[in-house]
Amino acid sequence: MATTIQTLTRTGSWFKPELRTKDYTSLGDVYEDSKYNELAAKKWNVEPQSKTDNYLKLVKQASQRKWIHLRLLADFMQIGRIPRDWAGLGSIPLAEREQAWRRTNICILDYHKDKKPAKRFVENHKGEGLTTEDLKSELRIGATEHASFRLYVVEDLSRNVIEALGSEFQISPEFFRAHIADYAWYNVRDRWREPQPLEVVRNQRNWFQIRYVTTRYFATKEKQAASVEGGGCFETALEEAKSFNIFRRPDDDKSRGWWDSEDAVVALTRSRATFWYRPKDSVNGTAIGVLLLDPTVSEGLPLWRGHRNFHPVPTTFEEFESDHSAWETSTYDKPQSFFEDFIYWAENPQVFSSRTDTPPEHTPILTLLHLVGAEWLTMCDYIKTRLNQVDLETVDPVHFAEKQHVDVALGKLHMWRRFIPLYREMISDTLQHVFDSPRSSCSGPMSSELASLSISGVTVATPGTTCPTNNSPQTAEKTNPTSHPGPVGDTSPGQGTLPTSEVHRGTNIKAASSSPSSIKAYEQDFRLVLKHLEEYQMRIDRLTSVVTAVMAVDDTRRAINDARNIGRLTWLATFFIPFSVVSGIFSMQDLSAIRLDTIWVYFATTLPLAIVTVAFAWALHSPVVRAWICRMW
């Protein structure tokens, strides 16, 4: 074990000293409200303006009452970003915080019937000049054109974006709270832990979240290294990630193999996509969706150059020439962020469904599941690659191991042993909260084509269709007695549906159809990814046993070699025993009596005696002699 630790330290451990701290005395833990209040008052507290900061005022008041898990959101809106160093917040200039408050990158997509989605950007990357009221005005432009569905796609988050969207659409603060940070686990003293809700509560939400992992290749790790074409610097990407408002961090997995470039890094980033939905109302007949996406670092390239082109492959040259513009994307000409990639494919919903009756509000979910599924498949291929490399390093470390140390392979396996259970949890959450919807029993002229949205027990379906639904998977065999189906847009009380405000508060978007164009069709792919991860976890357990056995064999082999060396030293010591005895006898006489003839007598005596001693020892070492001695005795 000591050898393993030394080897991991020598080859670059995953341990990062700057991330290990228990200095809760300077920032307060979850059990010390007085320390937290004192720190907040000194470092970042901002009094909300009555006209422009209503949402911040709501979040702060809620966080100071019984909803303490909203404290992180209140701190985020006041500070401007997730702090990496809570104790050093006092040194951040107010101008820098205001710039983080105003950072905006929003794309508005309006979906009309039989028309390509209309696109408009609201950008303010430098955070200059776009106030909350200006942002609200930008978000309202074109809202009266009666699009069937309007989607707001947000990259990163900022105080003004949260204020504008939250107050404009009455979005629950938990929606933004769930997106601003990503921690694999929490210490028992962390005050930023997000408590998990019960499933019965989760099923009443009108938003859900998908967690996934992205992979990115960097040609160099350190800034001092020479720039390599087609790559990037990992340390530069880390600094860029620190400039994001939300907390995301690319991590070096330390799994470099013999085939990799000497200084190359493959970084893994835990990511989130959070989608909020409000169905059509009687005011303008437009459904509203808000999708929060993670920012992407500009350094590096997607692993293996990213996912495949989702456009159908042309079968003839004439077809390619006639629709050449349809095949072109900038994915390979210029690396795209996940935000830009999503916008491109959300503008082309026909790629994911050839059906004309697919609801437009399904488009962002279909696009998101397609992109996230592609990321998971890439991740599965990457894990398989690394495990195969570890297998070869174990079988033939001389030719395939980078350092020719088998215990390095054990360190890599320990990393994946920690990662894969977390990835399985991500996939399981997606399967449970996106695909495992209440079963519907539909009847009507379009029941076989229906792709419904389950809204807190009320099914928003196409006109002429009645679909009793359930409120949770646990009660799939029972019909909700408090809600009744109704047609789309019919939200008046007493017509078999809940009032508009109640529907908005309890919307739960899940697919309830197995038709090829529906959300449910992607469940098979995600279950396949989960199956791959389960197989990889079992393979890691087997490889860990094999590597441990190989290390034990190597230790035994080294022990045998050490024993042989000690045996040789023993024979050498046996040979010099007569020299020591005779020299001890000679030392009893006066030194003046030692002459040249005395030295001759010394060697003439000791050399034959040494030969006889070695011969006698060799004879005793012989199995035949030892057997004869045993018979004699």
UniProtKB/TrEMBL annotation:
Record bears the keyword Membrane: yes
Transmembrane spans: 569-587, 599-619
Span list, region Disordered: 462-515
Membrane is among the record's keywords: yes
Keywords assigned by UniProt, alphabetized: Membrane, Transmembrane, Transmembrane helix
Composition bias, Polar residues: 462-483
Domain of life the protein comes from: Eukaryota
Protein name (record): Uncharacterized protein
Organism: Gnomoniopsis smithogilvyi
